[in-house]
């Protein structure tokens, strides 16, 4: 029997993210077994070395236990989940060739419009497969590779083999093992040495099918003295059955290179979001994470940065918004593994109507990381007495030759401020919205303009109770 999420019934709302495609999929696979894993690999015509990774991951998944901390996810039954859903279209290079029913969804989300105005390339995934990928001719001439991850396995096998599973190993946790057994779709990006992109690349992942999982894999390599801004968007309509997202992101930032990785995750509130992200940074390299976590019933997401080179830098900027029935367990991890490395963290959370926001941080400054600097700031805003917000920092500092600071503040929305704004003619809803937008503004400024607009739209929808 399917697991029902009764409080999030499948019903129409005025939320544009809740639109659904009625186009029938060409293939659906339910559950998980060795036969199913072999069938997915065969469907993709994968080489034996990839199938071997899948089978090893399946064995690990079956042996590993659920985490014994964090939100309860014991009700997830993989045998009740559609683990592979193939859209009734292949990958297209022209937006006009995408089937109208699918195209309508992405048109309303603004994907093709962003491509025309601001992007060097765009990818769009629908359920388990990429249905569109395109890169400008200028980028191709510079040697930039931006393609479907499944295609990269076929066309760039040695390059993929060198990096795939090297940042995030199969043994990391139970749900990354599940990911490697079932991975499908995602993006592969390679920026040659010295190439600096003046426009971002974007991949957008849409899970349309109810009672399904999505397991895309993103692998990005930014070579020496190159730079890239990559934007990732995620959304799904609401259903009364459990959905699962267990994607994976592996990032490699080489010497003197720069990568900005921006994400807005706007999953529906019947979603378990068990995503995994990790980045290796070499000498003088920089990784910037810009993240917004909205929607989902449960999120467990803690991007890890490993600063392996002298003068490597990491900046992490994050905002989470939890409403009724949501438990957003998010955070950040960093390992300082070289001298003169630097980390700056600015995290904010908002909770309302009994929602739970929890921020976990783990900082490990190794003995060889002399003259390192870490500055962590966490701010939480609770909009009522039923909501909850917690910060759980763990700091392992092995050298006294470093500068470390951690600030955390948790507070309720000010009744005095609301009263003052209402005395100036605002309604209570308008007053609360203004305060929340002011709290979130520093994070919004860090996003690309289009995603800053989307973030503010999502905040308004959350305040109105219109998401999910």
N-to-C terminal Cα separation, in Å?
23 Å
What's the helix count?
11
Oligomeric state of shown chains: single chain
Helix content: 10-25%
Which descriptor suits the 3D outline?
A: globular
Detailed description of the structure:
The protein is α/β, with parallel strands linked by helices. It folds into 2 domains: 16-301, no CATH class; 415-468, no CATH class. It contains 11 helices and 25 strands. The strands form 3 sheets. Strands 5, 6, 8, 9, 11, 12, 14, 15, 17, 18, 20, 22 and 24 form a 13-stranded mixed sheet that branches. Strands 4-3-7-10-13-16-19-21-23-25 form a 10-stranded mixed sheet. A two-stranded antiparallel sheet has the order 1-2. A hairpin with a 2-residue loop joins strand 3 and strand 4.
In short:
By secondary structure, the chain is an alpha/beta fold.
List the helices and strands and how they pair.
Layout: E1 27-30, H1 34-43, H2 48-63, E2 82-86, H3 100-109, H4 111-118, E3 121-126, E4 129-135, H5 137-141, E5 145-148, H6 149-155, H7 157-163, H8 174-182, E6 187-191, E7 201-206, E8 213-214, E9 217-222, E10 227-235, E11 243-245, E12 248-253, E13 258-267, E14 271-273, E15 276-281, E16 286-295, E17 298-301, E18 304-307, E19 313-322, E20 327-336, E21 342-351, E22 356-365, E23 372-382, E24 388-397, E25 402-412, H9 415-423, H10 428-444, H11 449-464
Parallel strand pairs: 3-7, 6-9, 7-10, 8-11, 9-12, 10-13, 11-14, 12-15, 13-16, 14-17, 15-18, 16-19, 17-20, 18-20, 19-21, 20-22, 21-23, 22-24, 23-25
Antiparallel strand pairs: 1-2, 3-4, 5-6
Helix pairs in contact: 1-2, 2-8, 6-7, 9-10, 10-11
């Amino acid at each position: 029997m399917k697991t029902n999420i009764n409080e999030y019934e499948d019903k129409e709302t005025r939320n544009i993210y809740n639109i659904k495609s009625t186009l029938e999929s060409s293939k659906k696979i339910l559950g998980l077994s060795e036969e199913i894993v072999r069938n997915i690999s065969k469907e993709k015509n994968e080489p034996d070395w990839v199938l071997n990774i899948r089978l090893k991951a399946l064995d690990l998944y079956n042996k590993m236990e659920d985490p014994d901390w964090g939100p309860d996810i014991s009700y997830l039954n993989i045998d009740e989940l559609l683990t592979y859903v193939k859209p009734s279209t292949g990958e297209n290079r022209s937006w006009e060739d995408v089937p109208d029913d699918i195209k309508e969804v992405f048109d309303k989300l603004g994907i093709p419009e962003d491509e025309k105005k601001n992007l060097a390339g765009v990818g769009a995934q629908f359920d388990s497969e990429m249905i569109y990928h395109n890169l400008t001719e200028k980028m191709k001439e510079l040697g930039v590779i931006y393609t479907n991850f499944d295609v990269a396995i076929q066309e760039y096998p040695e390059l993929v083999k060198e990096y795939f599973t090297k940042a995030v190993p199969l043994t990391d946790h139970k749900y990354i093992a599940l990911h490697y057994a079932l991975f499908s779709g995602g993006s592969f990006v390679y920026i040659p040495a010295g190439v600096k992109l003046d426009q971002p690349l974007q991949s957008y992942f849409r899970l349309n099918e109810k009672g399904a999982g999505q397991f895309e894999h993103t692998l990005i390599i930014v070579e020496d003295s190159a730079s890239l801004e990559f934007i990732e968007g995620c959304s799904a309509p609401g259903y009364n059955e459990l959905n699962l997202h267990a994607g994976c992101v592996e990032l490699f930032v080489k010497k003197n290179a720069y990568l900005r990785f921006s994400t807005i995750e706007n999953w529906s509130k019947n979603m378990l979001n068990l995503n995994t992200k990790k980045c290796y940074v070499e000498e003088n390299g920089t990784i910037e994470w810009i993240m917004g976590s909205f929607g989902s019933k449960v999120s467990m997401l803690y991007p890890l940065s490993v600063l392996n080179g002298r003068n490597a830098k990491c900046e992490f900027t994050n905002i989470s918004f939890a409403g009724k029935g949501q438990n957003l367990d998010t955070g950040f991890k960093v390992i300082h593994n070289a001298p003169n490395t630097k980390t700056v963290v600015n995290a904010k959370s908002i909770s309302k109507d009994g929602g739970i926001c929890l921020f976990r941080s783990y900082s490990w400054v190794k003995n060889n990381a002399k003259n390192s600097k870490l500055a962590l700031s966490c701010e939480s805003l609770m909009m009522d007495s039923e909501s909850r917000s917690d910060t759980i920092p763990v700091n392992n500092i092995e050298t006294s030759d470093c500068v470390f600071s951690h600030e955390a503040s948790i507070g309720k929305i000010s009744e005095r401020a609301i009263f003052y704004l209402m005395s100036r003619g605002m309604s209570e809803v308008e007053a609360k919205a203004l305060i929340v937008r002011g709290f979130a503004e520093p994070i919004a400024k860090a996003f690309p303009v289009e995603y800053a607009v989307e973030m503010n739209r999502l905040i308004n929808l959350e305040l109105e109770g219109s998401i999910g």
